[in-house]
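Proteins fold reproducibly. Next comes an illustrative record:
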Amino acid sequence: MQVTPHDALIVIDVQNDFCPGGALAVAGGDEVIPVIEKIAPLFAHIFLTQDWHPAGHSSFASTHPGKEPFEQVQLSYGPQTLWPDHCVQGSAGAEFHSSLKLPQAELILRKGFRPEIDSYSAFFENDRVTATGMASYLKERGIERVFLAGLAYDFCVGFSALDARRLGLPAVIVRDACRAIDLNGSVDRMEAEFAGAGVEVVDSSQLGRTA
């Protein structure tokens, strides 16, 4: 698969709290970094997302008395999985992993900063309506296809890819540049949605650059 100048790599949430030792660690989360850095030179455009929650965020189990992490509750926009407190604004856990070196990245998009609503996708909050601004940015920059990598495959990466397709953008996930949580079968559910939406899943070894 050839990467063109109109493609962008979106690196999702490679932050300390999602890596080993973090508050919401994804198994092997830091293993995505060398793969991302290997493919980064193929792309003329690289964008990063950063989970950026205020303390007491509505998606935190600690905000709901008697609830535990990974339980579900109903919020105004529908079902919401509750998480351990993570990626709190200004905390060490919210910082990008120190091994991630992408100084050429053109944009850092922060998401999840609205206290009352969670945000998995780079494009929309979890109400599926409130836009982050990423779609407009890509359109103005002339981006015609997005490649996605990072954490976690079955949540923030996956929902970003599905929303890209919903917006009419081809979406390609670099599978070995992601790691999954796999919460109660979430990988299988997400991959079924990929098949229905036309999200492509490839290995980094399949990527090359148009001369």
About this structure: The radius of gyration is 16 Å. The helical segments are 32-39, 134-141, 153-166, 186-197.
